[in-house]
C-alpha cells in the first residue's frame, strides 16, 4: 500500500534551461522549420524561428555535415541584387529509422525516411505465439532483412510502439494483457539484436508525434489522438509536449465505462470502452451475423463496400460509440484537434460523419481521421524514433550504433 503524508512537500527548484537545453531547442526548431517549409532560404528560417541569421547558418552547416539537409540545386536571386539565396531542404535520400509495431495478431516492421514516409514495410504473423523473446527476435530479423534490401539507406535507430502500458523512460512494456506481456525490456532485448539505439513508446503517443511532425495536426497547439484497434487508448499533446504521466501511464482509457455497453470485459465489469470497441469484438459480431468468417476487420470493411447492410450497420454503430468516447474526452481536455485511428472512420465517409455527429456540430470539424490510413502501424513505430531525431538532431551519429 502506498504511504501517505500530510507533511508539506519540500519546495521545488524551478528548472533553468542550460546551454545544452538551448542548443537542443534551437537545433530542433531549425530542422523542423526546414522539414515544414523547405526548400527555404536560411534568412527565412531565421525569420520563422526568431533565431539570429548567424545562428541559423551555424546550425545548418552542422546539419549539412551530418547529411540531414542539403542545398537546393537552383539558387534564388534576392530582389535581383546581391548574392542569391540558396535554399536548403531536408535530405531524405539517405537516412531511415526502423519502425516496429507490436499488435496482437502480428508485428509490423518498416523503414521510414526523415519525412515520415514508409519506404518499405512487412507484417510478421505471430504464428508461433506471442512469447516476447520470439516476437522481438523476429522483429530484429525482419528489420535486418529490410535494411539488406535497401543497402543505400543508413539507419539512425529503431522506434517501437505498442498498446497497453508502455514506459518510455525504461523502454519497457509494463503490461499488455492481450499479448500476455509483463515487464518486457523491449529496449534491451531488441537493441542487443538489432545493434541500434531503440526507443519505445505507446502507439497513441507515438502517433500524436507523427501527426504533429508529418500529418494534419501540424501547427495545432493541442492534439488528442484516439487509437481504436484491438487495444483502445488515447494520447494528449499540448505546446509540443506529449503528456506521459508517472511511468507513462497517461492515456489508459480501456476501462472507461460506456453507458449502455453490453460486452463483458476481462476486468469483470460490463461495458468497458475497449471491450465494446475492440476489433476482436467487431469481428466476432460480424462472424455471428454471417458477414465474415475471419478475424480481420478489413474484411468487414470490404463486406460493407460490397453493399452488405449488416457490415455497414456494425461499422456505423462502432463509429457512433467512438464518437461518444471522443466527446467525453473533448469535454475533459478541450483540444484544438482530435485525430482518430479507427478502421471504419479511416475508410468510410459515412462512419466519419456518424462519429462527428456524436461529437456535436460545434466541434465536429476538429475531428480528423488519421493522416496515415494505409500505414498507421508502421508510422506509429517509426514516429517514436523520428521524434527523437527532431528533438535533438545534433546528437545523431549516422552510421554508428
Structure in a nutshell:
By secondary structure, the chain is of the alpha/beta class. The chain has helices at residues 19-37, 42-49, 53-66, 132-149, 186-194, 203-214, 273-277, 279-288, 297-305, 309-333, 343-347, 349-359, 376-391; strands at residues 69-71, 88-90, 95-102, 106-112, 118-125, 154-162, 165-167, 172-176, 181-185, 198-202, 222-228, 232-238, 241-242, 337-342, 367-369. The strands form 4 sheets. A 5-stranded mixed sheet has the order 5-4-3-6-10. The chain has a 5-stranded mixed sheet with strand order 13-12-11-14-15, sandwiched between helices.
Describe the protein in words.
- With 401 residues, the chain is an alpha/beta fold.
- 40% of the residues lie in helices and 20% in strands.
- The protein contains 13 helices and 15 strands.
- The protein has helices at 19-37, 42-49, 53-66, 132-149, 186-194, 203-214, 273-277, 279-288, 297-305, 309-333, 343-347, 349-359, 376-391, and strands at 69-71, 88-90, 95-102, 106-112, 118-125, 154-162, 165-167, 172-176, 181-185, 198-202, 222-228, 232-238, 241-242, 337-342, 367-369.
- The protein has a five-stranded mixed beta sheet with strand order 5-4-3-6-10. Strands 13-12-11-14-15 form a five-stranded mixed beta sheet, sandwiched between helices. Strands 7-8-9 form a three-stranded antiparallel beta sheet.
- Helix 1 packs across helix 2, helix 2 (42-49) crosses helix 3 and helix 10 (309-333) runs parallel beside helix 12 (349-359).
- The protein is globular and about 65 Å long.
- This is ROK family protein.
- Belongs to the ROK (NagC/XylR) family.
- Residues 1-24 are annotated as: Disordered.
- Pfam families: ROK (PF00480).
- InterPro entries: ATPase_NBD (IPR043129), ROK (IPR000600), WH-like_DNA-bd_sf (IPR036388), WH_DNA-bd_sf (IPR036390).
Amino acid at each position: 500500500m502506498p504511504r501517505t503524508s500530510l507533511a508539506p512537500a519540500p519546495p521545488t527548484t524551478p528548472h533553468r534551461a542550460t546551454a545544452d537545453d538551448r542548443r537542443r531547442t534551437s537545433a530542433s526548431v531549425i530542422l523542423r522549420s526546414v522539414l515544414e517549409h523547405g526548400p527555404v532560404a536560411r534568412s527565412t528560417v531565421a525569420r520563422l524561428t526568431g533565431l539570429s541569421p548567424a545562428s541559423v547558418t551555424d546550425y545548418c552547416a552542422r546539419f549539412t555535415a551530418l547529411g540531414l539537409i542539403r542545398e537546393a540545386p537552383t539558387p534564388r536571386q534576392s530582389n535581383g541584387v546581391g548574392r542569391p539565396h540558396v535554399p536548403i531542404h531536408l535530405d531524405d535520400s539517405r537516412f531511415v529509422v526502423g519502425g516496429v509495431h507490436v499488435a496482437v495478431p502480428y508485428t509490423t516492421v518498416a523503414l521510414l525516411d526523415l519525412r515520415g514516409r514508409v519506404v518499405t514495410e512487412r507484417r510478421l504473423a505471430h504464428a508461433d505465439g506471442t512469447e516476447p523473446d520470439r516476437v522481438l527476435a523476429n522483429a530484429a530479423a525482419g528489420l535486418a532483412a529490410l535494411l539488406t534490401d535497401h543497402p543505400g539507406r543508413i539507419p539512425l535507430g529503431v522506434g517501437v510502439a505498442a498498446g497497453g502500458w508502455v514506459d518510455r523512460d525504461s523502454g519497457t512494456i509494463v503490461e499488455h494483457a492481450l499479448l500476455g506481456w509483463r515487464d518486457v525490456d523491449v529496449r534491451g532485448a531488441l537493441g542487443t539484436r538489432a545493434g541500434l539505439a531503440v526507443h519505445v513508446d505507446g502507439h497513441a503517443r507515438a502517433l500524436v508525434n507523427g501527426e504533429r511532425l508529418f500529418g494534419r495536426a501540424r501547427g495545432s497547439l493541442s492534439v488528442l489522438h484516439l487509437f481504436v484497434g484491438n487495444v483502445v487508448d488515447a494520447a494528449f499533446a499540448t505546446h509540443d509536449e506529449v503528456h506521459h504521466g508517472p511511468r507513462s501511464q497517461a492515456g489508459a482509457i480501456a476501462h472507461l465505462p460506456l453507458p449502455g455497453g453490453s460486452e463483458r470485459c476481462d476486468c469483470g465489469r460490463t461495458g468497458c470502452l475497449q471491450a465494446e470497441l475492440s476489433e476482436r469484438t467487431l469481428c466476432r459480431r460480424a462472424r455471428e451475423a454471417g458477414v465474415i468468417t475471419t478475424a480481420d476487420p478489413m474484411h468487414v470493411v470490404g463486406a460493407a463496400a460490397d453493399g452488405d447492410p449488416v457490415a455497414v450497420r456494425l461499422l456505423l454503430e462502432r463509429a457512433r460509440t467512438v464518437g461518444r468516447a471522443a466527446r467525453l474526452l473533448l469535454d475533459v481536455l478541450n483540444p484544438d484537434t482530435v485525430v482518430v485511428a479507427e478502421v471504419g472512420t479511416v475508410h468510410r465517409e459515412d462512419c466519419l460523419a456518424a462519429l462527428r455527429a456524436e461529437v456535436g456540430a460545434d466541434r465536429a470539424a476538429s475531428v480528423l481521421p488519421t493522416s496515415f490510413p494505409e500505414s498507421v502501424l508502421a508510422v506509429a513505430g517509426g514516429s517514436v524514433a523520428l521524434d527523437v531525431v527532431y528533438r535533438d538532431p545534433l546528437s545523431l551519429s549516422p552510421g554508428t550504433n
